[in-house]
Amino acid sequence: MKDVIIIGAGPCGLSAAMECQRQGLSSLIIEKNFIVHSIYLYPTSMQFFSTTALLEIGGVPFTSPNDKPFRHEALVYYRRAAEQHGLEIAAYEEALSVERNEDGSFTVHTVNKRGERQSRQAAHVVISTGYFDQPNMIGIPGEELPKVTHYFGEAHPYTGMKVTVIGGSNSAVDAALELIRVGASVDMVYRGASISDNIKPWVRPIFESMVTKGLITLHLESRVTEITPSSVIVTRHTGETSELDNDFVLAMTGFRPSRALLSSAGVLMDDALDKPSFNPATMESNIPGLYVAGVIASGRNANEVFIETGRGHGKLIADHIVSQKLK
Ligand SMILES: Cc1cc2nc3c(=O)[nH]c(=O)nc-3n(C[C@H](O)[C@H](O)[C@H](O)COP(=O)(O)OP(=O)(O)OC[C@H]3O[C@@H](n4cnc5c(N)ncnc54)[C@H](O)[C@@H]3O)c2cc1C
């Protein structure tokens, strides 16, 4: 039986495994896809807003010619860091539920890509399943059409197409800028009175100049209220509606964590904040021996935990497990 099973091989789960290792605890990571799957899903040419130093885990230096690294550099970095630490990772194995045994240890029920079910035992469990699997759905007619996606990889497939980008955050702005480079005609629809204050400062002036030049049509204080196979219906805050001719919709509306595993183990949720109950000093949930790490610990605003902050959760967890063992 392992000391710790960590569910999710994102940067925060990997960091937790490395910290457990440093403190002499054995661990196994269960990952339903593959290592840093969320980063793999980022737009292909995405540049981090964090510097390399703030993305480092397990004391492994992240070197790059760029102050802020690109997605492909982060994929290599996290892969190498995991390799260097010799982490044990069960890839393509999904955790379905977590059960607390009578003696206080845990059974994690999983299924692998061949459909084989397993019951894995550990003295402690860390849930670090992130938030990238569950897009925030808008809940409008037509959202299920194949022309709509919540994930933007790269602009090339949209060459010369009419694309509506929904949202006003960094992902929406980055997508809009990439799209005009391949000759797409871009409408951007955002409910706010201006795009987000958090837009990367080096990107904002470029975006504003593209709007001024008329290469991106920005519809502020507006919502897409229906999607049809050939158009989107946009409703202004005044109630006035218009129909835009459209081939594709990129709904850059963010993501939110799935709490299913936490609920399966009996972790309490603060319904108002949509946040699991845990002690921020140890990351232990209301279930003794069961911890949260990374963005799964955040509330409704999933952006309150980043790699920068979530990578430190593993140390709090390992410190607590070791201190309990010494008692
Ligand atoms: C475009 C973009 C840019 C970003 N830039 C930055 C930045 O510059 N700096 C920064 O600090 N943060 C940035 N972030 C945020 C950062 O990506 C997240 O905070 C980070 O990925 C959270 O790490 P995590 O380990 O908690 O979860 P994740 O990275 O989401 O990893 C969770 C893992 O759990 C796995 N999983 C899920 N469910 C199960 C299950 N049931 N069983 C087994 N495995 C499961 C998933 O496959 C995934 O691999 C950015 C995010 C986006 C979308």
Automatic annotation (TrEMBL):
GO terms for molecular function: oxidoreductase activity. SUPFAM superfamilies: FAD/NAD(P)-binding domain (SSF51905). It holds the Pfam family Pyr_redox_3. Keywords: Flavoprotein, Oxidoreductase. The keyword rRNA-binding does not apply. InterPro entries: Bdr, FAD/NAD-bd_sf, Ferredoxin-NADP_redctase_2. The keyword Oxidoreductase applies. Its cofactor is FAD. PANTHER family: THIOREDOXIN REDUCTASE 1-RELATED-RELATED. NCBIfam families: Bthiol_YpdA. This is Thioredoxin reductase (NADPH). It comes from Paenibacillus typhae. The lineage of its organism: Bacteria, Bacillati, Bacillota, Bacilli, Bacillales.
